[in-house]
Amino acid sequence: MKKTLSDAARDPRSLTLNILIGALSLLVAFLAYSLLDRHFLRPPVDTVRQGAGSSTVIQLDVLNGCGVAGAATQFRDYLRARGFDVVEMRNYRSYDVQRSLVVDRTGSKENAEKVAYALGIDRSQIVQQINPDYFVDVSVVIGKDYKSLKPSE
Description:
Helix 3 links the parallel strand 1 (59-64) and strand 2. The chain is built from 4 helices and 5 strands; from the N terminus they run ααβαββαββ. It has helices spanning 5-10, 12-41, 71-82, 109-119; strands spanning 59-64, 85-91, 101-104, 126-128, 138-142. The longest helix has 30 residues, at 12-41. By secondary structure, the chain is α/β, with parallel strands linked by helices.
C-alpha cells in the first residue's frame, strides 16, 4: 500500500524530525547572530589598566557636558556593560561642550584610547590633564555630539 502525503505528515517520526530540524535551525541562527554581534557590532574592548604594574580595570568618571538629562546615565550604563569601572557620574562645569572628550588623568594615554575606542570617540578628542587629586584614570565629558557615539547607535 502506498503512503499519501497526509499519512506521512501524521507519522510521529516525521513530526519529531521536523521539530528537531526547526530547533536546530533556531540554534544556528542564534549562534550566527551572537558571532556577528561579538565580533562586528560590539567587538570586545580591553578594559585592563595600563601602567603602574596594575592589572585592575580602568576606572573613570562620566561628566555631562551637553545638558541633556539622562545622557551621562546612558553612557555610564554602556561603559559598565562593556567592563569599565565607572566610579562617578556628575555634571561638567558647563553644558556647552560641542564634541565629547576623553581626558587622561594619570599620564597613561593607552587607558584613554581604550575608553575612546569603546565609545567611538575620535583619538583627536583625547586630552591629557594629569591631576594627582583625581582618583580615576580617565574622565569622559559627554558633548552635544552624544547621539553619534556608540551607546546611541
